[in-house]
């Protein structure tokens, strides 16, 4: 059984970052129409990432010696919260800043840190993550892409799919088999950094239902990689991937994916007035947002104290994505009234968010996988 | 302080609020022995300001005691008496002996929970309140239901006392008790799923059951968090409760209560419907608590209006300013 989460608050020194970030965002994204901002952390704009880098806001938590700002998790929490609430196009640097950089910092060699981290902080190295394969989804241990030792380096063959931003990225951190067979499951998996411009890498973007192409299929045909492509220990890929995923389950990005739609609707209600039913729905969404945010901050507090609240983080992600999916559902319900006229930008924002919302509970661990983790935490399996 | 308080509350309830004791009181037996223990414990004056002779704790410190009461389905208004004593003591009014229920106006009458026993009812009336002796009430049986007894007093009965927002105060007490009841339901449900064998194995080993209990776990954690958010004392009402926080929490806890009760009964294979299993005592509290002091639609519309009338800007800014995990001055 897991204990209650004590309330945690964002420390004042991290809150102090907020006004500057808000002022910057007002200027940088205020003019972007809401249906574009609704892309949230899927909105790709390298120019915006470079602007953030110019303010010192990429690699906020990386040590100063590697070009970072040496700040803590709560500073980044404030930054991410404001970026997502504003609908800033953070996708270009998102994975590098959120996952790949911390992974390299934790498991990489000194040379790898000195090479990659400053480039991430300058928005010169964008990363993608090669996990899923044509026949590997939630069952991640079944990957078949294989890197074989060749001289001092590696020869890579196989394919990754649904890789977000592969077509725009400089590097992929891929989970591959370096020894054994698929039947060995977690044993024999490693993480390697693939230079996506290397010969033998073929990237084919996949178009989605909204007309965007944010993910790709990536095929590796006899790709030759140097020896230092390996990150961390050979055979420790599974452990490293899990450490990485634990940090990505409970942040503001699991609560705020539909924030632009919620605010567009709320602002419109402010202008035209709301009936009792719309007020009640709005209040319901605000209540959920408040509780989820407190839970997300409480989990961050645990992480800051060096604990690994894996089950609590899974709770936040499952509840958070349910909330993100509830927003387009209930807003569509209130707007579907015969004769009601709503602004086109609101309807376009709704259309995008409603169409993409089913993916919210799939990315980063499906609902069923998360609930399985919670059940394990409760002693049921 | 906090853990000491919780420990002594849990010890008190384990000893004096067993399932048999709770059932006896609900069936009309004397609550005197349990109430005597609560009086001796000092909990009743926890929220009374120190200058009025109380302990001067805030809602956040008192919360774990009420959560413990919720876990044991205590059929006495512990939280409500604490709040009523804070109101009366804080206003320099004489504080009567005994349990005090916060009544809700029901036309010219008062509605109180059907299973709770008390000596007094504090009923809002014209910007103030009436402190009414429960023994002098006439029950309107035709208007009553298991969701609430309807009580009426003769004209001129009771003592007029100043009162803060008793709707907000009562909602806080229910939020806490409901969060506690849900924690206990979760524990009982997990244990039942592990013990109960079907198809030759524990029902806990079925993925469909695991997924349901995971959903329940999420709601229980969210409710506890909602109760903690509601207990941040940055308002100007009774015990410095803040109506914005109460609105959000009562709504969230009310929503959770429906799912938690349904999943609890489902995993128990409806055994909780039988009289002898404790589950229905707890789900009964949830059902009644959800209906008291405003439910989801009431508080949702209230909160929605509050947001629309506010000029904070987007929803996140509103939540940060008014519904954050710490009082604004602490996080500003």
TrEMBL record, chain A:
Pfam families: Acyl-CoA_dh_M, Acyl-CoA_dh_N. Residues 12-124 form the Acyl-CoA dehydrogenase/oxidase N-terminal domain. This is Acyl-CoA dehydrogenase family protein. The keyword Hydrolase does not apply. It comes from Pararoseomonas baculiformis. InterPro entries: Acyl-CoA_Oxase/DH_mid-dom (IPR006091), Acyl-CoA_Oxase/DH_mid-dom_sf (IPR046373), AcylCo_DH-like_C (IPR036250), AcylCoA_DH/ox_N (IPR013786), AcylCoA_DH/ox_N_sf (IPR037069), AcylCoA_DH/oxidase_NM_dom_sf (IPR009100), Mycobact_Acyl-CoA_DH (IPR052161). Residues 128-223 form the Acyl-CoA oxidase/dehydrogenase middle domain. Keywords: Flavoprotein, Oxidoreductase. The lineage of its organism: Bacteria, Pseudomonadati, Pseudomonadota, Alphaproteobacteria, Acetobacterales. Gene3D superfamilies: Acyl-CoA dehydrogenase/oxidase, N-terminal domain (1.10.540.10), Butyryl-CoA Dehydrogenase, subunit A, domain 2 (2.40.110.10), Butyryl-CoA Dehydrogenase, subunit A, domain 3 (1.20.140.10). The keyword 4Fe-4S does not apply.
UniProtKB/TrEMBL annotation, chain B:
Its cofactor is FAD. It holds the Pfam family Acyl-CoA_dh_1. Keywords: FAD, Flavoprotein, Oxidoreductase. InterPro entries: AcylCo_DH-like_C, AcylCo_DH/oxidase_C, AcylCoA_DH/ox_N_sf, AcylCoA_DH/oxidase_NM_dom_sf. It comes from the Bacteria. Residues 171-290 form the Acyl-CoA dehydrogenase/oxidase C-terminal domain. Belongs to the acyl-CoA dehydrogenase family. This is Acyl-CoA dehydrogenase/oxidase C-terminal domain-containing protein. It comes from Pararoseomonas baculiformis.
């Amino acid at each position: 059984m897991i204990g209650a989460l004590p309330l945690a608050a964002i420390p004042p020194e991290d809150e102090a970052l907020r006004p500057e970030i808000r002022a910057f965002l007002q200027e940088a994204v205020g003019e972007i129409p809401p249906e574009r901002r609704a892309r949230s952390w899927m909105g790709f704009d390298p120019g915006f990432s470079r602007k953030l880098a110019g303010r010192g806001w990429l690699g906020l938590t990386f040590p100063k010696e590697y070009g970072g700002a040496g700040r803590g998790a709560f500073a980044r929490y404030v930054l991410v919260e404001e970026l997502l609430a504003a609908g800033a196009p953070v996708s270009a640097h998102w994975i590098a800043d959120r996952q790949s950089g911390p992974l390299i910092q934790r498991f990489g060699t000194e040379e790898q840190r000195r090479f990659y981290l400053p480039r991430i902080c300058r928005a010169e190295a964008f990363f993608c993550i090669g996990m899923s394969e044509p026949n590997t989804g939630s069952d991640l241990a079944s990957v078949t892409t294989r890197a074989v030792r060749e001289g001092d380096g590696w020869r890579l063959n196989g394919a990754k799919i649904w890789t977000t931003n592969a077509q725009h990225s400089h590097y992929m951190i891929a989970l591959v088999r370096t020894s054994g067979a698929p039947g060995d499951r977690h044993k024999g998996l490693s993480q390697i950094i693939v230079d996506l411009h290397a010969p033998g890498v073929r990237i084919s973007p996949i178009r989605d239902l909204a007309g965007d192409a944010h993910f790709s299929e990536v095929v590796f045909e006899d790709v030759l990689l140097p020896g230092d492509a390996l990150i961390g220990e050979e055979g420790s890929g599974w452990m490293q991937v899990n450490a990485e995923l634990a940090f990505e389950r409970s942040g503001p990005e699991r609560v705020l994916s539909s924030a632009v739609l919620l605010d567009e609707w709320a602002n419109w209600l402010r202008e035209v007035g709301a009936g009792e039913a719309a007020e009640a729905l709005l209040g319901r969404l605000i209540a959920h947002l408040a509780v989820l945010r407190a839970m997300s901050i409480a989990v961050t507090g645990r992480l800051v104290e060096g604990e690994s609240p894996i089950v609590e983080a899974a709770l936040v992600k499952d509840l958070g994505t349910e909330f993100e999916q509830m927003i387009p559902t209930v807003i569509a319900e209130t707007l579907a009234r015969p004769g009601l006229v709503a602004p086109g930008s609101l309807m376009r924002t709704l259309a995008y968010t409603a169409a993409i919302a089913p993916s919210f509970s799939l990315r980063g661990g499906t609902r069923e996988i998360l609930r399985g983790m919670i059940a394990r935490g409760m002693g049921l399996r | 302080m906090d853990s000491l308080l919780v420990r002594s509350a849990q010890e008190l309830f384990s000893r004096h609020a067993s399932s048999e004791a709770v059932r006896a009181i609900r069936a009309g037996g004397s609550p005197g022995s349990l109430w005597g223990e609560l009086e001796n414990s000092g909990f009743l004056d926890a929220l009374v300001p120190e200058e009025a002779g109380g302990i001067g704790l805030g809602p956040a410190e008192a919360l774990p005691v009420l959560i413990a009461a919720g876990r044991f389905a205590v059929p006495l208004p512990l939280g409500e008496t604490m709040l009523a004593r804070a109101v009366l003591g804080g206003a320099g009014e004489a504080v009567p002996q005994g349990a005090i229920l916060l009544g809700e106006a029901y036309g010219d009458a008062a509605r109180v929970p059907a299973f709770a026993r008390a000596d007094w009812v504090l009923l809002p009336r014209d910007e103030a309140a009436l402190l009414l002796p429960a023994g002098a009430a006439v029950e309107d049986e035709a208007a009553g239901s298991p969701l609430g007894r309807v009580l009426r007093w003769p004209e001129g009965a009771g003592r007029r006392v100043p009162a803060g927002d008793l709707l907000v105060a009562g909602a806080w007490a229910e939020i806490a008790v409901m969060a506690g009841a849900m924690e206990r339901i979760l524990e009982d449900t997990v244990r039942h799923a592990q013990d109960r064998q079907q198809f030759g194995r524990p029902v806990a080993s079925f993925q469909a059951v695991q997924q349901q209990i995971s959903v329940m776990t999420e709601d229980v954690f969210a409710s506890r968090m909602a109760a903690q958010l509601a207990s941040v004392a940055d308002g100007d009402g009774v015990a410095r409760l803040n109506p914005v926080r109460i609105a959000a929490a009562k709504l969230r806890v009310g929503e959770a209560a429906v799912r938690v009760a349904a999943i609890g009964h489902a995993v128990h294979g409806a055994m909780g419907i039988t009289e002898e299993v404790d589950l229905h005592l707890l789900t009964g509290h949830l059902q009644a608590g959800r209906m008291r002091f405003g439910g989801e639609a009431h508080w949702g519309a209230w909160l929605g209006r509050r947001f629309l009338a506010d000029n904070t800007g987007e929803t996140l800014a509103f939540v940060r300013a008014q519904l954050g995990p710490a009082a604004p001055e602490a996080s500003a």
